[in-house]
Structure formats: structure tokens, C-alpha cells
Amino acid sequence: MLNNARAERKLLANLESTEAFRLLHNVPIFQRLDNDKLMGILEIGKETSFETNAFIAKEYDRDRTLYIILKGAVEVRKENKLLAKLGAGQFFGEMAFLDYLPTERSADVVATEPTKCLAIPGWSWYNFLRANGDVAVEVMRSMAARLREANQSFV
Questions:
Q1: b/e per residue, 50-68, with b = 16+ CB within 10 A?
Q2: Number of other residues whose CB lies within 10 A of the CB of residue 117
């Protein structure tokens, strides 16, 4: 039992020292989370790197992955029209987990420089939000702000 506790503390110390942990700690929707919850996010996600001009998500693909940008920048495009530019600390794909119906990506997301993301499967993200209502509220606020910005562009 003592060896298991030591191994777990060592694993947690290793996770806390990673670049991903430090970057994730600066993501606005996660800033109020304690280290254990941040490490929980790292455990359900997978760090993924993309080169400049790589498609991270393609419009109409059926993919329920949430991406948190740890480093780099992306553009969100629909039919070659620029909808948004996102950078470190921002996220996309948050709508994919909102319902159980097969959903398609609503836009292309393309890396505009070398980019590192934390990719979280939709079902894992959904379970995390159910257990962490404060993060769910921050995600809703971010989504509302994006919807407000989109509405302004039609005026």
C-alpha cells in the first residue's frame, strides 16, 4: 500500500511538472480548479501536435473531441470564410458533447503555426463537466460570448 501511495505521488509530481500542466493552469475556464482536477483533465486528454496549415477538424466530420489549445494558434473557417482566430488558452469542439445525436463539425479548424492541443474525447469531457459544475458554467459563458460575437457579425 505504501509503495502504491509513493508511486501515485511520484506520478502526480511528474504531471505537475509537465508543460501541459502549466499551460492548462492558465486556461481561463480552468483557473479556479485545484491541481487534482487539473491532473484529472490531463489524464482524460491526449496531447496532440499539429504543423502549420494542418487541419485539426474538418467541417462535416463526425467527431466529438474537445480541443484545448495549449500552444500555438488556429483559424476557424466555414466555406473558406474566417470565423475566428483562437490561441493558447482557448478551446473548440465544445458543442460536440452537448447531445447524443450524431453531430458533424460546423467548421474547419486549421493550425496557423505549430500548435499543441489537449484532445479530450466528448464522453470524457461530458463526465468531467457533470462532476465540475464550475467549469461547465465557464464553458457556457464562453459559448454565449461566441454566439454574441457571431450575431454581431450579421448586423
A1: beeeeebbeeeeebbbbbb
A2: 28
> Which cell numbers hold the place of 151?
450575431
With DSSP H G I counted as helix, E B as strand and the rest as coil, what are the percentages for the chain, rounded to 5?
45, 25, 30
User: How many Å apart are CA 59 and CA 55, to the nearest integer?
Assistant: 10
Which of 23, 12, 79 shows the shortest CA–CA distance to 47? 23
Residue 58, Cα to own-chain centre: how many angstroms? Answer: 16
Q: Which domain, by its residues, includes 18? A: 2-153
Instruction: Give the CATH number for residue 12.
Output: 2.60.120.10
- Compute how many other C-beta atoms are within 10 angstroms of the C-beta atom of residue 138: 19
In sequence order, which residues have a C-beta less than 8 Å from that of residue 139 and are 6 or more positions away?
29, 94, 129
pTM to 2 decimals?
0.76
* Residue 146: predicted pLDDT: 73
Encode pLDDT of 108-146 as tens digits. Answer: 999 999 999 999 888 888 888 888 888 788 778 877 887
For the chain, the domain total comes to: 1
User: Which residue stretches of the chain have pLDDT < 70?
Assistant: 1-17, 96-102, 153-155
